[in-house]
């Protein structure tokens, strides 16, 4: 099977599963953005996904994003998302090049993003990443640290927080991720009652190849799917 056909077939399957999860949970298909995760995936495969209708793509590494954005600059309607651990000295690769940075987990990083965005004369939208599972190895802040981090947005006018992100540990049974997804939605709802400048928690980025249906049932607005579209990574 040619690569492009394989990718469009897999993409169609993922879309069917998204639609089924929306139908089960009474959600509108329009409320879900599928972010195709392209770490280690070549520009040709991204072109194939684009030809099959995909528009949102997620990258984990700064230089990889820079290089692919350049290689695919002829596709003007392509929207990049940064989803990986972001070091402060790599902020320059993501700010201004991405629709959304999903993985912000410190005030220092927020400040670096704000500085870079202000230099470029734009406002960068971000999500705050939470670690809801007590796993020391995972990225993201503990939920106790969320109020203080959101407070800092008030003095960073070139940076807006538009929601929350989480990445549960890998579970064989996706149902085990459900309480963590429900918790993320709950945290966003809690904050909706206490408006803060620079903060509007309307997005939940949660769900990957193994658990995106459960995430949709629990309120995801952005799902980040790699393997189910592009196959296993090397
Ligand atoms: C790689 C990655 C994904 C996609 O994972 P799959 O299991 O391949 O769908 C989603 N989110 C983040 C943050 C990732 O690093």
Give the overall silhouette.
globular
Major β-sheet profile: 8 strands, parallel
Strand/helix succession: HEHEHEHEHEHEHEHEH
| Portion in helices | 25-40%
**Rg calc:** 17 Å
Brief sketch in words of this structure:
The protein is of the alpha/beta class and 234 residues long.
Verbal overview:
By secondary structure, the protein is an alpha/beta fold. Helices cover 39% and strands 19% of the residues. An eight-stranded parallel β-sheet has the order 7-6-5-4-3-2-1-8. α7 links the parallel β6 and β7. α1 (3-25) crosses α2. 39% of the residues are buried. The structure holds pyridoxal-5'-phosphate (PLP).
List keywords for this structure.
binds pyridoxal-5'-phosphate; eight-stranded parallel β-sheet; 9 helices; alpha/beta; 8 strands; single chain; 19% strand; 234 residues
Task: Summarize the helices and strands and which ones pair or pack.
Layout: H1 3-25, E1 33-37, H2 43-51, E2 56-59, H3 62-71, E3 79-82, H4 91-94, E4 100-104, H5 107-120, E5 124-130, H6 146-152, E6 159-166, H7 178-192, E7 199-205, H8 212-217, E8 222-225, H9 227-230
Bound molecules: pyridoxal-5'-phosphate (PLP).
Residues 37, 39, 60, 83-84, 167, 208-210, 224-228 line the site of pyridoxal-5'-phosphate.
